[in-house]
């Protein structure tokens, strides 16, 4: 299978039998088109960019992830936890175009961070987002950061 990336995000998957395209805006997955079909699956995401619902015509498929991203797959998931694509066999996420692999089962990276323990990576070289997946993301596997998308509520005085 050939995988094409745009800004460290997989956008096209081509195999001898089919092709799939993911349409993104910034880091957020919006839709998936499989094969030559003109029908697209639309993706609803939460504020942390995790896919929570796919819609294709009249079919609604809710998705549910644990705080650290564990998901019991029922079908191939192309845009999952934090908007990333899990490996079809292991369910792990190759963040940063495969720079570091993250396991949702052990809730840790499988390799140490090169900028830990004294840099941006934090004190634990294997920890995912400083053990705060509710508020932080790590799209490239190098350092945790706040997501670009946040819902802002204005207060009335």
From TrEMBL:
InterPro entries: Rhs_assc_core. It comes from the Bacteria. This is RHS repeat-associated core domain-containing protein.
